[in-house]
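> example.struct
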């Protein structure tokens, strides 16, 4: 096993590149994470994944964990993203929390269980973060120990027999937290604690008891975001309605403006009465409190991240989160009645997708 000393806070580029080279060639790399020392391979190389399973003597029914670089990527790999899971990600990613989701069609088969589930985490340690960001591949990971044995917190604690099968050890000193990640299953609107870890059960339970918050944002809050708010409120399961706040705001809204006549008309034909709605201007506090922020245009997302940068990872285009389409929904204001009907149809299809994506069907 080749060992390279590497800075845990500012990993040297050439040493990260060496790790990437080994991984791309199908090798096994050991490195510190925010929890314990881990092993990583290219998730899309079945030979590397097979070798890792054999080396660790890991049972096949225990899938490896997919490390991601950005929270936004979750919509690509998870078929369902429950609102509570989004809240947990907002608070604890990057960090010592592993979430198990229903796997999407593009999730790596090597990491997908027989139940079509995939375990995902975003580490907060700079070394795996750099490996993921610069590698541009999917990193399959597990702890650097034989299954059932203690997790190593330092490079010199890795079992010497395990080390014989490792191609490269990036020695970055002691792991940050010294305890494995907490594992939570989030395959439906109800979550389940699977493994206690650094995050205690009480913290997970506390988040589960909080009321959900979904915020729609457009420009003036008299048309598109109002349509989305009204339609999601209508489709939200009646028994769950008191557990979520669904609201809307506008980037450039004139506070207290009523909806336009054609907006009200197309909504009325869907059985929705929004005559009492008055526009609200987007505030930083609303962004801070929201679990999920859904916008109509890319410019809305840029503006939101300018107002409140920590919102990154919970702000999506409506079509992106609901249907996996990085498409905008144009503003019909000033257009024909047909443009309003088309806008409502696009939003309605996306809201149906939101219900599915949140696991509420």
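> example.seq
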């Amino acid at each position: 096993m080749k060992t390279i000393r590497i800075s845990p806070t500012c990993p040297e580029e050439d040493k990260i590149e060496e790790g990437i080279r080994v991984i791309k060639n199908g090798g096994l790399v050991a490195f510190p994470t925010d929890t314990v020392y881990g092993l990583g391979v290219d998730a899309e190389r079945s030979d590397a994944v097979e070798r890792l399973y054999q080396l660790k003597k890991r049972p096949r029914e225990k899938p490896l964990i997919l490390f991601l670089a950005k929270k936004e990527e979750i919509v690509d790999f998870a078929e369902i993203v429950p609102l509570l899971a989004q809240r947990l990600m907002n608070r604890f990613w990057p960090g010592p929390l592993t979430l198990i989701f229903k796997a999407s069609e593009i999730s790596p088969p090597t990491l997908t269980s027989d139940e079509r589930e995939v375990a995902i985490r975003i580490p907060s340690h700079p070394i795996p973060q750099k490996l993921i960001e610069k590698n541009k591949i999917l990193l399959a990971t597990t702890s650097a120990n034989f299954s059932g044995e203690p997790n190593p917190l330092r490079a010199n604690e890795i079992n010497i027999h395990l080390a014989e099968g490792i191609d490269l050890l990036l020695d970055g000193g002691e792991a940050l937290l010294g305890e494995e990640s907490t594992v939570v299953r989030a395959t439906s609107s109800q979550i389940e604690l699977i493994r206690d870890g650094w995050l205690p059960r009480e913290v997970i339970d506390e988040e589960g008891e909080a009321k959900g918050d979904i915020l729609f944002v457009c420009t003036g809050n008299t048309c598109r975001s109002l349509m989305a708010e009204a339609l999601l409120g209508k489709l939200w399961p009646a028994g769950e309605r008191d557990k979520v706040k669904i609201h809307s705001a506008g980037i450039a809204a004139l506070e207290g403006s009523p909806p336009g006549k054609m907006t009200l008309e197309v909504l009325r034909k869907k059985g929705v009465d929004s005559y009492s709605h008055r526009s609200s201007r987007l505030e930083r506090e609303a962004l801070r409190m929201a679990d999920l922020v859904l916008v109509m245009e890319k410019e809305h997302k840029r503006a939101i991240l300018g107002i409140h940068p920590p919102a990154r990872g919970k702000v999506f285009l409506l079509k992106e989160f609901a249907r996996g389409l990085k498409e905008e929904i144009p503003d019909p204001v000033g257009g024909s009645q047909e443009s309003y009907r088309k806008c409502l149809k696009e939003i309605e299809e996306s809201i149906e997708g939101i219900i599915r994506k949140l696991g509420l069907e």
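> remarks
The two ends are 50 Å apart (CA to CA).
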